[in-house]
Design brief:
The protein is of the alpha/beta class and 136 residues long. The protein has helices at 3-19, 23-29, 49-60, and strands spanning 37-39, 68-78, 81-90, 93-104, 107-117, 134-135. The two termini are 15 Å apart. It is globular. The protein has a 6-stranded mixed sheet with strand order 1-5-4-3-2-6. It has one domain: Nuclear Transport Factor 2, Chain: A, CATH 3.10.450.50. It is built from 3 helices and 6 strands; from the N terminus they run ααβαβββββ.
Length: 136
């Protein structure tokens, strides 16, 4: 598997944990050795792993938490660091997110997530040569 595909897989795992409200899976995708941070829309920055995981516990256990669907991911890999920019489709609007990953323990682990308000994403064009997600 290419590194680009591996990062996209890790990004998909992050959103799957969110969609299934799986705190254990969410915990597993975040780095353990590298410092982490997270900026949820409208929140103050969370600057350590304990704060970040407490925030995800609050979000994932909230019965009225919104559904989030990622769209149009773009992956960039720079050696042991990578990032994904994607649109997030919510029940009540749209966000754009940046997810930063580091290669840790042989796997891509998220070290930073930030999402903020954005206009609706552009519709994906159908291209018979395009396998799906954008990988750069």
């Amino acid at each position: 598997m290419s590194e680009h595909a591996a990062v996209l897989f890790a990004n998909d795992a992050f959103y799957l944990a969110f969609a299934t409200r799986d705190l254990e899976a969410m915990d597993a995708i975040w780095a353990l050795e590298t410092p982490v941070s997270c900026i949820h829309p409208g929140w103050e920055p969370l600057l350590d792993r304990d704060e970040v995981m407490e925030s995800w516990e609050a979000i994932l256990t909230n019965p009225s938490a919104t559904n989030v669907t990622p769209k149009n991911p773009t992956v960039h890999v720079f050696g042991e660091v990578a990032y994904v920019i994607c649109s997030e489709i919510l029940d009540q609007g749209f966000l754009v997110a940046t997810n930063l990953f580091v290669h840790e323990g042989g796997q891509w682990k998220i070290i930073h997530h930030q999402a903020g308000a954005a206009p609706p994403p552009e519709a994906e064009e159908e291209d018979e040569n395009d396998p799906g997600d954008t990988i750069q």
